[in-house]
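Here is a typical sample entry:
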Amino acid sequence: MGRYSIIDFVNFLLQRVYNPKPIADAIIISALTKVVKDVNYHFPDTSEAIIIERIIANQNELVLFLFRLGSELHKENQDHLKPQIHFLMKDLCCCEIYFNSTIDEGFYIIHGEGTVIGSRNTIGKGFMIHQNCTVGHKVNGSGNGNTIGNNVKMYCNASVLGSLTIGNNVTIGAHTMVNKNIKANTTVVSSSRLDYL
């Protein structure tokens, strides 16, 4: 599959949106390029053609693509085009990821349904999360976002809530709610309280 197919696919998706507005081909291709880097960070042998196929088939890569597309629109100050991508992310992927959060290369979501990443977070390279994860604030609409280091993993139903600093190479176990800063190279698991192993 060539790059034209991803442009055609975006135009197809926009038919699901009330009063759709076109998105420039260059922005679509820029988003695709970033998704290829995201996937290749973890799976270096995966070709662009296979990644496009997976986006079109609504596999893990679709939500990455929609996030990168919305982020490109945000950077280009195309605010009038962002709501339709936000709608598609929620409609097709059951995810909500704010486009003003900065997520570096290597972002990957596995079974991403229920994923919420709120506004103004700064996240490093190699961020990998599973279904029903939340990265957000303690108070809606105010405060700074979280700062998350490189190669952080969150397993299903994990949450990071606050204006926290999470170090590099942290693993957050399933069903764990984090409300304190975590130093690098730490594994956090759920119990009757937060345990730092």
Remarks:
- The helical segments are 3-13, 25-42, 48-56, 60-75, 82-93.
- The chain has two domains: 1-93, 95-197.
- The longest strand covers residues 134-136.
